[in-house]
Design a protein that fits this description.
Blueprint: H1 2-21, H2 36-66, H3 75-108, H4 114-122, H5 129-140, H6 145-154, H7 164-189, H8 193-200, H9 205-216, H10 218-233, H11 237-243, H12 251-261, H13 267-294, H14 315-342, H15 358-365, H16 367-400, H17 406-414, H18 421-435, H19 441-465, H20 470-477, H21 482-510, H22 514-518, H23 527-536, H24 540-563
Amino acid sequence: MSATRSNTLAGSADSGRTRKGVRPGQPEPGRRRPDGVTITRTLLWLACLALVVVPLGTVLALAAGGNHLALLLEGDVLEAGVNSLVSAVLSAAGAVVVGSALAILFDRTDLPGRRVFRLLALSPLLVPPFVGAIAWIGIAGPTSPVNLWWRDEFGGPLWIIYGGDGVVFLLIVHSYPIAMLVVSAALRRIPTDLEHAARIGGASALRALVNITLPLLRPALLSSFTLIAVSNLADFGIPSIIGLPERFVTLSTLVYRYIQSGTVDRPLEVVATIGAVLLVVALAALVLDLVASRRRWELDSSTSTPQRLPLGRGRVVVAVLTWTFVLTITVLPLLALLSQSLLPAPGVPLTLENLTLDNITRAVTARGTVTGATTSIMLATLAGLICGVLGLGIGTLVTRTKARDNRALHALAILPQAIPGLVIAVAWLVIAPRIGLFNTPWLILCAYITSFVALVVQAVAAPLSATPLTAEEAARASGATRLRALVDISCRMAIPAAVSGTVLVALTAVRELTLSVLLLSPGAQTLGVAIFNLQQAGSYNTASALSLIITIVGLAGLGFAARSPR
């Protein structure tokens, strides 16, 4: 009797545990099927592998198998490599000095008009470098008004921008806003209590800035130097327009010559070797920056208002010098671009009788412009939409879920941002024949997605990482699945940032040159390539007119992108 009762109780307990642990029709815990989040994560991993790992791995494999390393130490390649390295290092150092000085002036001194200064000083970041190069030709080119007047007065030009010094100068002009942004962000994180303590101890404001603030800025200075040097190492627009007339050849212009002319045997293997070297250099710089970042220290933030450095009697002088510098490198190139667009030919005096709209009309109606605009708009729109979807998914998963591979997925998605565009172009150029995309515009689209998806990932991850998970937890408690909670709450919160990132990708792609000119195929001319071809063909004023139009449209679009998150 007792045994029967025990068996009955045991059976009841087992059935109770069965009802409690697993619902009817559900799989056992050990055999749980993948849910929507797991499937989405797998698809995003496959996309990152296809867009990042496969192209870059193919470049490394082809470079290793080609055995062309000895070519890097011979002739044109060695000269171009030295030129690229020197121009990248010098421009990065100059950009860090200029950007840091401006950041300190705007954030730590009582300089008048700081807000207007900041907006103007950031404007070179919004202008494509090759457009800036064309604009500066109107200021310091051989037929510029300044050089013509100086030649008449003193028998020779003041300074001709063509050559290596002009390349370094323009790289600094278009890179210092990056250093300025990085240093400004670091300045805001430095607690002002340390400066106040130094001031109480008898130090002057300048000494507190030099002995306290500047040493704490070293990590930011190193990061901005690394980022700018890697970016400038393979820039194509400025060296091609400013350097080539004086035979200042860099790796990017050399690769372009190899691809277009086929002056070497097995050009893909040679180009892949150059791309692999640049990739190794970029990754080494990234690793050094990560190692340095681990040695940084975190300081508690302070709510006290920073005490600005009084400029005293030199306030007016510093303001005038800053105004002169900022206006010279921001407004003057745009005015030069406008004047070139309204004149019939280079060197023609700027008078009312000589002004004409023929260049603008020719730039808008030219066949190459129409073809380039159509292709650029199509590729930029597709790149923006695809990057928007991928960036929204990756940014949401890595910030709103708990998984061991979140960091790896995020790092892989943003890795191309630290890789020169030349390497990405070479990677897709090598892989194109194997996947049937050679000589098609879709090859440029793939390169755009690889290069710009990080923009959307960072735009989405930044606001989501600072938002609590309480809303998703409430949705899960109400019975929503993990995927439903992410879609209905996290994705909806991130849509404004994703739209902003999508617009930014489209605007960046429509003005891009390095990827397009290296991956150019018949019938796939872009706006950047159209301007480059006009410049190379000697139609300088028409190129200036088209550059001016693209700059105005781009600045208006970037203004919309900045307002869209609201």
